[in-house]
Amino acid sequence: MDALVRTFNQHKVLNGLTAHIKRGDVVALLGKNGAGKSTLLHTILGFGVPDGGEVKLWQTPSIALTQQQKQHIGFVPQQDELLEQLTGAEQLKLFSKFRTHWDQACCDRLVDSWKIPLNTRISKMSLGERQKLSIVLALCHQPELLILDEPVASLDPMARRQFLAELIDIAAEQQRAIIFSSHIVSDMERIANQVWLLKNGELAFQGPLDDLKESVVRLHFPQTLTEVPTELTLVRRQQLGNSTTLTVQDWQPGQLASLQASYPAIQVEYLSLEEIFLELNR
Ligand SMILES: Nc1ncnc2c1ncn2[C@@H]1O[C@H](COP(=O)(O)OP(=O)(O)OP(=O)(O)O)[C@@H](O)[C@H]1O
Fold first, then answer.
1. What is the whole-number distance in angstroms between the Cα of residue 40 and the centre of ligand 1?
2. What is the pTM of this model?
3. At residue 282, does pLDDT exceed 90?
4. Does residue 105 register a pLDDT over 90?
5. Is the ipTM beyond the 0.90 threshold?
6. Domain identity same for 152 and 202
7. Which of 24, 79, 155, 175 could join 160 in a cystine, given CB atoms 3.0 to 4.6 angstroms apart?
8. Residues 193 and 247 in one domain
9. Across 24-43, average pLDDT
10. Pair 36, 9 in one domain
11. Residues 92 and 200 in one domain
12. CA nearest neighbour of 122 among 93, 147, 98, 146
């Protein structure tokens, strides 16, 4: 996508986003409630027309994808789009009929291990059962691009783990691109290799997860700092008794040596993705 803009009621929810994905990428899409994650995913899928810029999949604008290209996309929406009046089995049969690459063995395996009650009418299924069924539909037609909008919100911890294991297997094949939004940041940290961090309509960070984890750190000084070293990009300062902690971004490991010249006891703490997300959204 290039310079992508989406505006609702004169508010630019997406304000000029540029990013690219390729096979093997597993992108964790992070952002607070209302940051624009679903809007971005829907626009990538061609469900909404950009107000500026463009999104292309396989060199085709998303809004002009052919039926054949759409066959290569798997999507788990935040709110499922299952047909209430059908049973699970009927829904699977109907969906698979229109998919050229349907993998029945994958479907049987997931339905069995997730104990999806296929004979139950979808309107009577629990939220978690519906979410599992949506995931089966998205995963088992072997899409080249898999887009998951909060796919685990209603899953119990066991099902969540099984789902993540499936996703890790799919990601390991390096044949697909996955974009995954979730508020369970620790899950994303286990499977993602790329991060898009949406904030105020822009990508506050986009790039490899490892780069993000190296660039946002906490520096512990066992003394009260009178001033913040000018070479640091400060995110937050905390004072606890006589020690000072600085959370910084744009950290370069090479900076440590020069800081140690003035502060020999300085310590660097690397953070989890969840902590980084919280720090950058404070
Ligand atoms: N069709 C629409 N019309 C008007 N405003 C919209 C529309 N779709 C989204 N918005 C607004 O755009 C903003 C982003 O919404 P979006 O659903 O993309 O956020 P999100 O990051 O997915 O949030 P959450 O984490 O709560 O699911 C919100 O302020 C929302 O009210």
1. 9
2. 0.93
3. no
4. yes
5. yes
6. yes
7. 155
8. no
9. 96
10. yes
11. yes
12. 93
Ligand 1 nearest-atom number relative to CA 31 = 21
| Biggest distance spanned by C-alpha atoms of the chain | 70
Pocket test for ligand 1, best of 38, 76, 199 (most atoms within 8 A of CB): 38
169 and 122 within one domain: yes
Nearest CA to ligand 1 atom 31: 34
Q: Is there a single domain that holds both residue 277 and residue 142?
A: no
Q: Using CA positions, which residue lies closest to atom 24 of ligand 1?
A: 33
pLDDT given for residue 270 in this prediction: 97
What are 155-203's pLDDT values in tens digits? 889 888 888 888 888 888 878 999 999 999 999 999 999 999 999 999 9
Residue percentage of the chain with pLDDT more than 90: 86
| pLDDT of 58 over the 90 cut | yes
In terms of domains, do 172 and 276 share one?
Answer: no
Alpha carbon nearest to ligand 1 atom 27, residue: 33
> Where in the sequence is the domain holding 224, given as residue range(s)?
216-281
Per-residue pLDDT at 154: 84
CA-proximal residue: ligand 1, atom 4 (nearest): 8
DSSP string computed for the chain: -EEEEEEETTEEEEEEE-----TT-EEEEE--TTSSHHHHHHHHTTSS--SEEE-EETTEEGGG--HHHHTTEEEE-SS----TTSBHHHHHHHHHHT-TT--HHHHHHHHHHTT--TTSBGGGS-HHHHHHHHHHHHHTT--SEEEEESTTTT--HHHHHHHHHHHHHHHHTT--EEEEE-S-HHHHHHH-SEEEEEETTEEEEEEEHHHHHHHSEEEEESS--SS--TTSEEEEEEEETTEEEEEEES--TTHHHHHHHH-TT-EEEE--HHHHHHHHT-
Which of these three, 180, 210, 240, is where a domain ends?
Answer: 210
